[in-house]
Structures are given as C-alpha cells and as structure tokens.
Amino acid sequence: MLGFGIEVWGALDFAVDPKGPRLQLDELTRSLICIKLQCREAFTCWQKSLMFSPMEQIHGHEVMQMMLHSGKPYTRSSLIADIIANFGVDARFHTCSAENLTPEGLIDFLQAKGKFVPCEEGFQTSEDLVCKH
Questions:
Q1: Of 42, 44, 57, nearest in space to 102 by CA
Q2: Among 115, 70, 118, residue whose Cα is nearest residue 96
C-alpha cells in the first residue's frame, strides 16, 4: 500500500503525492488501484442502496395504525393498494417476530396472527390488537 493519498489521472499512469513529485506506477500498482476503485465504487453503491433504498423496514404497527386512521374496511387488494400508496411500492416491513415482508407477506402474517376483524365489507383492525411496545 502506498503511504500517501493517491489521485488517479487518466489511464492510471501516474499517482500524485500532494507533497511530492509525480510517480510512475507499475502495472501491478495500476491493477491494484483499479481493483480498489471498482470495489470502492461497488461498496459505495451498496452503501447508498442501504441508506436510500426501500430496504429500511417499516413496523407492521404502522400499517395497522394506517388502517385505524382510515376508518374504512379493507379487502386484501384495497389494503395492498393503500400500503403501496402510503409506504411505497418497494417498502418492506417487519414485526416483532418477522422481517423483510412484502405488503402481501405482511397481510398474510397479520391475518395469521388474528390482527384483522371481519366486517361486512371485508376487514379492519382494532386498537386493542396493536402491540404496545
């Protein structure tokens, strides 16, 4: 590893030490710099996807609160549509015991846990079915 900051010029022929002269790089050093830059670029893209992607998971309680605030009954398809409208098409959800759920997966999970109350037009939820933690 070179002991100073590297600036990459053009086809990676030279590196510059801000405090010293230009240095000619050998083929191995150029290759290592290319690999490092490619890895850094891939890592930066990966970091950005983690920071800015929809992979930030939303707790299922938020969906239940959305349902309560709407005051309307839901069908499976209308709940999926409202989840997407409120949280985005790529949103993922977690609960106390599951994670990385799609809207459909979250609905299946909540239904299996008895979090929906049947009504004439479909289903709704109830405040007492939302965990308080």
A1: 57
A2: 115
Please measure the distance between the N-terminal and C-terminal CA atoms of the chain and give it in whole angstroms.
50
- For residue range 14-33, what is the model confidence (pLDDT) as tens digits? 444 455 554 455 565 555 55
Spatial distance between the Cα atoms of 125 and 111, rounded to a whole number of angstroms: 10
Domain match, 75 and 106 both: yes
Q: Does residue 41 lie in a domain region?
A: yes
What b-and-e string marks burial along 13-34, b requiring 16 or more CB atoms within 10 Å of the CB?
ebbeeeeeeeeebeeebbeebe
Task: Identify the residue whose tokens are 């299922």.
Answer: 60
| Cβ atoms of residues 34 and 26 within 8 Å | no
Dihedral of the CA atoms 111, 113, 119, 122 (nearest 10)? -10
- Give the domain extent around 78: 57-129
pTM of the complete model beyond 0.70: no
CB 115 within 8 A of CB 125: yes
Give the span between the Cα atoms of 3 and 16, in whole angstroms.
11
Query: How many whole angstroms separate alpha carbon 117 and alpha carbon 6?
Result: 63
